[in-house]
UniProtKB/TrEMBL annotation:
Gene3D superfamilies: alpha/beta hydrolase. Keywords: Hydrolase, Lipid degradation, Lipid metabolism, Signal. Residues 1-25 form the signal peptide. It comes from the Bacteria. Residues 79-188 form the Serine aminopeptidase S33 domain. This is Dienelactone hydrolase. Pfam families: Hydrolase_4.
Amino acid sequence: MTFAFNFLHVLIPAVLALAAGVANAAGFQRLNLPMDLNGPGLQGAVWTPCAEPAGEIKVGRVAIQGVQGCKLPEGRYPLIVLSHGSAGSYLSHHDTAAALADAGFVVAAINHVGDNALDKSRQGYLSIFSTRPREMRRLIDYMTGVWPDKASLDAEKIGFFGFSRGGYTGLVLAGAAPDLAAGLAICADQPSLPMCRDIAAGKVPQQPYPADARIKAAVIADPLNVFSEGALKRVTLPIQLWVSARGGEGVSPASVEAVRQGLGAAPDYQMAAGAGHYVFLAPCSADQAEALPGICRDEAGVDRSAFHQALNAQVTAFFKARLQ
């Protein structure tokens, strides 16, 4: 169902539903996956249910609400893995991660190597399109096989949240193989990017893009669409698909609509009315807003904090219905 947010109608009951979750705060802990045969070390974080009151945790310019190192209450919890957009970080959606943890999920996110806020060395290369899904599979492997609290996870209930290139990553893991040879929208404006030069020269490496059957449901926000209709038809797991009304960064409402029409099962379709691509990022702290106005400033009439209260409630409700 597509709708533009009427906050008086949608936000109040959604927030009340979210407030009825099982915990008082989100536990927060750093995550470090060691280098192995499948790739370099990965840095990230885990948000967990927590029975203690939340406080503010500063990580660089980012201010998050949570409890550092909170003991995970007894129980078995579904796992949500989170994939950020290009040049983002494991903190890009920290408020959504905390909301899910408050509601009884364990949430894990990592920085994608060479395509994150601290390291953009591979941002313009085609290789990133194959390494991103592999890194998310490694994250699931680690959480279900190595993480100290792995016994508290229900490995049969795994969800995925992804934004922009992270949305692309989720669609690949859900079964859609990309068609990079068909081109990327960004190449119309930046043909000198290494990946655009390679596509123009016909140098698109053939890569396996296996699905990950462990993922049972996914929330995909403003995904980068590099898929044929036939590839998208292979995606049949439950999807909540979000689109911003104005798009950005190579994503447009039309390209997301093509994803919607192509999916093998109709998604739960939601729109961020009047907003651009970056509205899906967590509301910025004062330090972030001063340093990064391009991603922190929204269009006139858009209240990112209010939007995120509704977004987080809708995302939580979707995962509860499919995983809990």
